Amino acid sequence: MVRSLWTAATGMIAQQVNLDTIANNLSNVNTQGYKTQVNEFKTLLYQTLQTKTTTANGAQKPTSAQVGLGTRNAAITSIFTTGNLKPSDSDTAFAIDGKGFFAVRGEDGNTYYTRNGNLLWALASNGNMLATTEGLPVLDTTGNPIILGDEYILSRVTVSADGEVCYPDERNNPQPLGITIALFQFNNPNGLERLADSLYAQSAASGQPINEAQNPNVEKSSVIQGYLESSNVQVADEMVNMIVAQRAYEFNSKAIQASDEMLQQANNLRR
């Protein structure tokens, strides 16, 4: 019965983490580029109470006696489905149609990846730099920040579906400037390390980043200017998941209550 207390307690702890994850999804329902996170559970080791043996009369007992020790959270994974595309009045709002990620350079000099295309032009020492709202520079296909000189009128800069930065000529026809916004893919995006501000970091589980511009074997993503990708959180699904998690938490608490009552009855047998 003491084992039943610990087993039910592991279930309560696991469902508490599950509720925290669901609450985090709901709180980020309006965050651009946010991806829904789901909990994965696994069974703890089984304890063998009795192995395969024989009775006192020599009869075979082929089935062993095992008891589970509860559950635990195995992982919290992200679901990388594309969120709804919403129009934006900003000239530096970009959505990705496909599996690609924007690449940005962090303050530590490392490269990070994001689906949040809410960008802006920030002042730089030699012009205007395309950056995130946190001021991190967006990288081109060569791994360098995207910087335009002061001679360009930023409101007239456009970006093609291939990610090419263009500027109109004297006939008002967009012409490529030789700069392309980099898009990267990963063999296992679920293996990316989640960071703050919708950023992801490369890890051993995600594999090396694949530059779409340099790899013809991947399906190319498209850049859509004037749109932002919303989070892929489905509020109705999350509310259902929350109800299920709350009921599972309640069942585990009732198991603890039942074990407590059984222990109380066992103590009363001495009286």
**Helicity range:** 10-25%
What is the beta-strand fraction? 25-35%
Average pLDDT, rounded to a whole number, is: 89
Distance between the termini: 20 Å
Question: Per the principal axes of the C-alpha atoms, what is the gross shape?
Answer: elongated
Strand tally, please?
Answer: 22
Task: For this entry, give a set of tags.
2 helices; three-stranded antiparallel β-sheet; alpha+beta; single chain; 2 domains; elongated; six-stranded antiparallel β-sheet
Secondary structure: elements and pairs:
Blueprint (H helix, E strand, L loop, with lengths): L1 H26 L9 E7 L3 E4 L2 E2 L5 E2 L3 E3 L3 E8 L6 E3 L6 E4 L3 E5 L5 E4 L4 E6 L2 E6 L14 E2 L9 E2 L4 E5 L5 E7 L2 E3 L7 E2 L4 E3 L8 E2 L10 E4 L1 E3 L5 H34 L3
Antiparallel strand pairs: 1-6, 2-5, 3-4, 7-22, 8-21, 9-10, 9-17, 10-19, 11-12, 12-13, 14-15, 15-16, 17-20, 18-19
Helix pairs in contact: 1-2
